Amino acid sequence: MSEERKKELIDKLASYVVDMEDETIADLAQTYLDEGYDANDGIMDGLVRGMNEAGKLYDEEEYYIAELLLCSDAMYEGIGVLKKGLEDELDSRDRIKAVIGVIEGDTHDIGKNLVKIMLETAGFEMIDLGKDVKVDRFIDTVVNEDVKLVCMSSLMTTTMYLMKDVIDRLKEMGIRDKVKVMVGGGPVTQKFANEIGADGYSDSATEAVKVACSLFDRK
């Protein structure tokens, strides 16, 4: 094994995501594992970096939603292989259970999916409610599944205020102090997170992992 070879493969993983190579990326990911390189590095420095680069191309209007979805397909194909190589350093009893979803009225979930995957690799046990999630479903999941972290997102100013309703309901039920709440999404800001009483905010999937770990004093 060599660092030069590792970098070569990681750069290829990133470029395969950007180039939407969803049919061939699995073989590349398997080669990366077979040569003995760290699976987490492959995900974070390769696949996730590639998806972030694709997101920038979307923001610059060089890619449209169709291309972005194909990039995400490639990323998921690669992650499906690399996740098998992740060493589970945390005992299942030490995993923090979290629920994640896009708030009701919003169906944009690419960012949410990326955050979910990255939190899983960081040792969180994720319950994915998907998109267009009602306030009551968030609350029911917290209560029934003994959730310690709630992650909500919205890309629409018309729906983002429903995230405050989730926090208010947690307060009404007397369990707000037992649950950490993170919010994110295009129109969401740190100021908004502070206003609604969230514990954390991130403007990217990478930052979301850092924030989540800091909320539970984890590296």
Structure description:
By secondary structure, this protein is of the alpha/beta class. It has two domains: 1-85, Methyltransferase, Methionine Synthase (B12-binding Domains), Chain A, domain 1, CATH 1.10.1240; 96-215, Rossmann fold (3-Layer(aba) Sandwich). Helix content is 53%, strand content 14%. The chain has helices spanning 3-18, 25-34, 39-59, 65-82, 110-121, 135-145, 162-172, 190-196, 205-215, and strands at residues 96-103, 124-133, 149-153, 180-184, 200-202. A five-stranded parallel β-sheet has the order 2-1-3-4-5, with helices on both faces. Helix 7 (162-172) links the parallel strand 3 (149-153) and strand 4 (180-184). It is globular.
* Shape label: globular
* The CATH H-level homologous superfamily of the largest domain: Cobalamin-binding domain
- Main-sheet strand order equals 2-1-3-4-5
What does the radius of gyration come to?
A: 18 Å
CATH architecture of the largest domain: 3-Layer(aba) Sandwich
CATH domain topology of the largest domain: Rossmann fold
CATH C-level name of the largest domain: Alpha Beta
From the structure provided, what is the oligomeric state, counting identical versus distinct chains?
Answer: single chain
Mean of all residue-level pLDDT scores: 90
Order of helices and strands: HHHHEHEHEHEHEH
Main β-sheet description: 5 strands, parallel
Helical element count?
9
Distance between the termini: 27 Å
DSSP helix fraction: 40-55%
Structural class: alpha/beta
Q: Low-confidence stretches at least 5 residues in length (pLDDT < 50)?
A: none
Kindly estimate the percentage of residues that lie in beta strands according to DSSP: 5-15%
